[in-house]
Each structure stands twice: as structure tokens, then as C-alpha cells.
Design a protein that fits this description.
Blueprint: H1 6-14, E1 15-17, E2 25-28, E3 31-34, H2 40-49, E4 59-62, H3 71-74, H4 83-99, E5 102-104, H5 114-121, E6 129-132, E7 146-149, H6 152-161, E8 163-166, E9 170-177, H7 186-197, E10 205-210, H8 212-215, H9 219-227, E11 236-238, H10 243-249, H11 259-268, E12 281-286, E13 293-295, E14 303-305, H12 317-326, E15 341-344, H13 346-349, H14 352-362, E16 372-375, H15 380-388, H16 391-398, E17 401-402, E18 423-426, E19 441-444, H17 447-456
Parallel strand pairs: 3-4, 3-6, 4-5, 6-7, 9-10, 9-12, 10-11, 15-16, 15-18, 16-17, 18-19
Antiparallel strand pairs: 1-2, 2-8, 13-14
The chain binds iron/sulfur cluster.
Iron/sulfur cluster is lined by residues 64-65, 113-115, 134, 136, 346-347, 407, 410-411, 428-429.
């Protein structure tokens, strides 16, 4: 039998109809995650065609993108301040009720960012195909799932048929070996990968992250890596499940149990790339040579080691436009640049280990004068765990705002925004123009770098505080 990659195995197990030169494949979807922003039109489509949601047992809904993070608007009697956000929340509640979709509502203790709660509940499983109307669905690939974002029309197709029309992408091995140095995190690693591959280097491919660096990572770290696959243009990112994955899955609310667990484990252990399998493309990364990374421009590929200087790219209009937007110039050092806002959160870095890392740096310190810091847990479960571990108190004692879960400042749809012209060190995944607010200037970094910069009021190297 031909040697196959992990991606090949998951793809072929879900192919209902194979693709031809003229037609894409019909791919079965194991798990459809949905939220308030990309579902209204899809539900309208179902209504207009008088169709039900075909597999309610394979559909999970949450409220995250435009939900408030201020406690009084979630649990108090203060209404949601933003009209557009309030309408989206209401619409999701009505649609879920009408179609019988399992929704984690605003006050549900299981609510959170869609890419955080899927794994947390054990709903995201090895070997699954997982889709969601959000680009960072690639997060779930950390479990050996084939997970990718879909458009609003496709959300409607999956609601109606539990299938999707797809062309098969190519495979791309990201071989990462070596031990990460202290202060260098999974976020730095994925930023370095994007810097090397480029923002469109992965287009048309599915990444498989491989090597001893990946094997040594926790599931939280693996999710950070897979989350940003899309920022290198890849359709998805995958990591073969192993003992770390199985330990994470066991006992979770929606993970298999009893005899079903044993059967699942036998299947999951086969989800590895065969030794002789050939990838369509590959790149090698020496993780031991990396230092903390930070972006300087307006896409995640405009990234450099924190001690570096902005490169010269004469004659590059994209670079020139980015520098004008960011208020930076070629040749400038990143360390020491002033910081106005720090955001810890998002589906990239809103998990417990991320908050632990930031708290390790912040403990016993105060935010620099004039710095605003928002810490937004990725889910209500992460929030409870962080509070029980004393992390929330560390953030509050330092002067940071501690919020309810949600996407928050990752894209600011709920009104958590960065003001025009201000610099934000953010643990999220996109630094596009206006992503955190009109004119906001975003610098992507790890929770360690973000926390160190909050204390200094300037871009700071976290290694000095460890
Ligand atoms: S945190 Fe950001 S990237 Fe993640 S799901 Fe929310 S909006 Fe999308």
C-alpha cells in the first residue's frame, strides 16, 4: 500500500465522493462549530429552503466574537452596550432555539471562544474533520484533526448536508527540531515559521508540524502553533496525536469513554504519517536557534527576533505602506519602542498556560504608567481555573483589567478596541491595519513578551524577567 501522510489518511477517510478534474470532492464533516457572526445568513438559507440542521449531534454553537467581556454586561443587569453585538447575540439565541442547536449561551459556564471550548470539552478529536466559519479553525489540527475555516455560504451547506465541497490541498512538512530556549515560546516558534515560509508560502497546502520540538510541546502550545497556520497561507495545520494528546483527551466531557475510549485509542494511534510518505513541500526549522519574536508591520510575516532591527526593503510598496501605518522606519530597533496597550487573550494565547506565563512575569510588578492591559481568558473554564490558581489576582494587583471570556481585542467586534495611533502588544494572531480598531497599531508577540512590555511601558525582552 502506498505510504500516506497523516493528512492523506484523514482526508480519504472522509471522502464521500472523490474529486475529479471537473468537480471537487464531497467531504464529510465530523464536527461543525459555529458562532454568532458567520451563522445568521446560513440559518436564513435553511429557513428559505425549509431545511433543518441535518446533524444536530455534530453541531456546536457558542457566543464569542461580539460578546461583551465586562462582567456587568454578561452576568449583571447592564444591557450589551453595542447595538450590533446585542443583535448578533439575540439572533444566535433565536436561531439556535428554532433549529435545536446546542448553544453555549452568554451565561453558560461552558461558553468561550469557539477554538478553545471545542478542545476543552473533548469535542475536537483526533482524525476528525472540523469546520467553522472562522479562519483560525486550524487550531483543532493540534489533535490530528483536519480542521479549517469556511465561508458563510459553506456554513449553510454544512448545516444542511453535513458535507462540504473541497479540492484536496497538497501536503507540507514543517520539520522542527531542537529545544526551545527559556523565554522562547510556541508563539515565537509559529511567528518564526511564518517569517520563514511567508504569508502565502503555505497557500494550497496543509501543514504537518513534525519533529522533536513538537513532540515535547503541551497541547496548549500545539494549539497555539496550529492556530496560526492560516497566517502562512496554509489551509490547515496538523500534528499527529500521541500520548500527550491522549492524556489531554481522557475524561473530557465529550471524549469517548469506556469501551468507546479503547476503540478510539486504537484508531487514533494509526494517525501518523507513514515513514516513507512523501510531502509535496517541506521546510526545516532549528528551534534551538530562536529568540522571542515580535511583528513590526501589518501582516504576521513582517516579524523579527526581538533584539533585531526593522529590515531595509527598498522598492517594496507593501513594506512602505506598512511602515507609514505603523509609524516605524527601516533600521529601527524594536526593543524600547513605546507601548500603550497590552492584550493577553484570543484563541491563539487565551489558554491557562498562556495566562500562567504572563502572570509569572507580572507577579509583584505594576503596569508602567499610562499602559492599559486587558487580560481576557479564552473560556469561562479558563477563567475559573485562573481565578482558582490566583492568576487573576496577580493581573489585578499589577493594574490589569480581568474580564469575562471572548474574542475581545483580537478583532474588537464587542467594542474592546485600541485607539487610533496607539501601539498594542497583542497575543492574538492578526496585525492587519485596523484589526484592533481604526488606526490601531498591533505588534504580535507571546504572553511573556506582552507581560514584560506592560511592565516596562516599552517593548521588552521577557528573558530578563525570568
Ligand atoms: S479570538 Fe480572534 S481569531 Fe480567534 S476566533 Fe475569535 S476573532 Fe477569530
Amino acid at each position: 500500500m502506498t505510504a500516506r501522510t497523516l493528512f492523506d489518511k484523514v482526508w480519504s477517510a472522509h471522502e464521500v465522493v472523490a474529486e475529479t478534474a471537473d468537480t471537487p470532492a464531497v467531504l464529510y464533516v465530523d464536527l461543525h462549530l459555529t458562532h454568532e457572526v458567520t451563522s445568521p445568513q446560513a440559518f436564513s438559507l435553511l429557513k428559505s429552503l425549509h431545511l433543518p440542521v441535518r446533524r444536530l449531534d455534530r453541531t456546536l454553537a457558542t457566543l464569542d466574537h461580539s460578546t461583551p467581556t465586562k462582567t456587568e454586561q454578561v452576568f449583571g443587569n447592564v444591557p450589551i452596550v453595542l447595538d450590533a453585538a446585542a443583535k448578533q447575540v439575540r439572533t444566535m439565541e433565536q436561531n439556535s432555539k428554532e433549529f435545536g442547536v446546542d448553544l453555549f449561551g452568554l451565561r453558560d459556564p461552558k461558553r468561550g471562544i469557539v477554538h478553545i471550548i471545542g478542545p476543552e470539552l473533548g469535542a475536537s478529536q483526533p482524525g476528525f474533520t472540523i469546520v467553522c466559519g472562522d479562519s483560525h479553525t486550524s487550531t483543532h489540527g493540534a489533535f490530528g484533526a483536519l480542521a479549517f475555516g469556511i465561508g458563510t455560504t459553506e456554513v449553510g451547506h454544512v448545516f444542511a448536508t453535513q458535507c462540504l465541497l473541497q479540492r484536496k490541498p497538497k501536503s507540507f512538512a514543517i520539520n522542527i527540531n531542537g529545544r526551545l530556549k527559556p523565554g522562547v515560546t510556541a508563539k515565537d516558534l509559529i511567528l518564526a515559521i511564518i517569517g520563514k515560509v511567508g504569508v502565502s508560502g503555505g497557500t494550497g497546502h496543509v501543514f504537518e508540524y513534525r519533529g522533536d520540538t513538537i513532540s515535547a510541546l503541551s497541547m496548549d502550545e500545539r494549539m497555539t502553533i496550529c492556530n496560526m497556520s492560516i497566517e502562512a497561507g496554509a489551509r490547515a495545520g496538523m500534528i499527529a496525536p500521541d500520548e500527550t494528546t491522549f492524556r489531554y483527551m481522557k475524561g473530557r466531557a465529550r471524549a469517548p469513554s469506556g469501551a468507546a475510549w479503547d476503540a478510539a485509542l486504537s484508531r487514533w494511534k494509526l494517525l501518523v504519517t507513514d515513514p516513507d510518505a512523501v510531502f509535496d513541500a517541506s521546510v526545516d526549522i532549528d528551534a534551538g536557534a530562536l529568540e522571542p519574536m515580535i511583528t513590526y508591520g501589518t501582516n504576521p510575516g513582517m516579524v523579527l527576533p526581538i533584539s533585531g532591527s526593522i529590515p531595509q526593503r527598498a522598492g517594496d510598496p507593501v513594506f512602505d505602506k506598512a511602515m507609514a501605518y505603523m509609524g516605524f522606519r527601516a533600521g529601527e530597533a524594536m526593543l524600547g519602542k513605546p507601548v500603550d496597550v497590552v492584550f493577553i487573550g484570543s484563541c491563539t494565547n487565551g489558554r491557562l498556560e498562556d495566562l500562567e506565563a504572563a502572570a509569572r512575569i507580572l507577579k509583584g510588578h505594576k503596569l508602567a504608567s499610562g499602559v492599559r492591559m486587558l487580560v481576557v481568558p479564552g473560556s469561562q473554564q479558563v477563567k475559573r481555573e485562573a481565578e482558582a490558581a490566583g492568576l487573576a489576582k496577580i493581573f489585578q494587583d499589577a493594574g490589569a483589567e480581568w474580564r469575562e471570556s471572548g474574542c475581545s481585542m483580537c478583532l474588537g467586534m464587542n467594542g474592546d478596541l485600541v485607539d487610533k495611533g496607539k501601539y498594542s502588544v497583542s497575543t492574538s494572531n492578526r496585525n492587519f491595519e485596523g484589526r484592533q480598531g481604526v488606526g490601531a497599531r498591533t505588534l504580535l508577540a507571546s504572553p511573556l513578551t506582552a507581560a514584560a512590555s506592560a511592565i516596562a511601558g516599552r517593548i521588552a525582552d521577557p528573558r530578563h524577567l525570568l
